[in-house]
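Box 3.1 A note on notation
Throughout this textbook, protein chains are presented in two layers. The first layer is the amino acid sequence; the second is a token string describing backbone geometry. Keep the layers aligned when reading.
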Amino acid sequence: MFVIPTQVLTGYEGTFSGDAAWLHSKIDEAALILRGRLGDLDAWIGTDSYRRDALTVVIGRMVRRVMRNPQGLRSETAGDYSYTREASASSSSLYVADDDWALLGLPAQATPAIGTIGVTHEFRRTDGEPCW
């Protein structure tokens, strides 16, 4: 485990009254998401203390984002006031923000536009022959 719960809770504003098992599962899930791009995290951090620290910070940020809004509420009312949360803050899913990728020394992942279709100048029939 690259992050222990106390490291996540240290940067959390407020008091966490949730389940320790939930917190552990979110830390593990964040590590899994990062492993998808970084590969073996132990090998990735190697003996580089900066990488280890950056990984700790990023996992903590990922988990704290969900802790702040675990139900994924988009708008809330407090007394006479109501407000709408920014879309990324209202997600109850773990994600790696662009500045997190930058901290890890990587470019942000390009997000493909929904409904985008690639076009090519070459078409092929079902038998594999070009269709001009």
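Helices lie at 5-10, 20-38, 41-45, 49-68, 98-103. The beta strands are 75-78, 81-84.
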